User: What shape does this take?
Amino acid sequence: MCRIGLCLPRCSQLDLQNNSIYIENCLMAGRRVVVFPSSAELGPVLAQLVTSRAEKAILSHGRFTLGLSGGSLVSMLSKELPALPDLDCSKWVVAFCDERLVSFDDPESTYGLYKGQLFSKVNIPDSGILTIDSSLAVSECAEDYTRKLKEAFPDGDFPVFDLLLLGMGPDGHTCSLFPDHPLLEETKKIVAPICDSPKPPPQRVTMTFPVVNSARCVAFVSTGGSKAPILKEVLEGREGPAFPAARVVPTNGELFWLVDDPAAASLTIQVERLSAGAKL
Assistant: This one.
């Protein structure tokens, strides 16, 4: 029996011990894989997802907490969100799913990119943007960022974000959680330092899987034909350990994969295609 975006017969062929995370993902009713002709069609739907979850969160508990990632998400959100009529971000709290330990004026700084391209165009209060202190050593930076998140989320062991927006690298990593890295097994820290990132720059801080999987909603955005081989293995499983992106399985939340046709070219699972005007 297949659900939208899931294919259980494929799961039965996998090595259950090595790929148990993927099995959980397959059985998770909340995962939706939505395919768009191109990133141009994907962008407005992503913006709608952000604003709809923001409205829901503010009605529920008075604010909207959003975790951002870098890469193509920066330009996509910076184009689509400011174009929305009557966008009010005054009750938003924004953090970063991972960050490179560089100065904010460095082109590698995720915060710096959003500051220049998005934050200057919307009314998120400065106090609602949680950033790292890049002047600190990487371990101290992770501790300082942990403190900021705990102050913003005083309840519970881990922050519960309303929405996390994630990307995926060509090696299957997400946030700064890389294949075969010890941080994949971190269960206690909110934010972890990484000194040996296989992708430069080497020093970073990253949210851990307990934080990512505590979110009320997680949305991956993956576009381009170069992502097709890894996307197939992440969504359909592979022999051996699951890729980090496949280990994102929100405990009590929604999970979206928003991809374009080139990225989805190798998929054999069922996917969704939205009709014009449809919303997530």
In short: Helices lie at 8-11, 20-27, 39-61, 72-80, 110-117, 138-152, 209-212, 228-236. The first helix runs from residue 8 to 11. Residues 1-29 have pLDDT under 50 and may be disordered. Residues 70 and 110 are 5 Å apart (CA to CA).
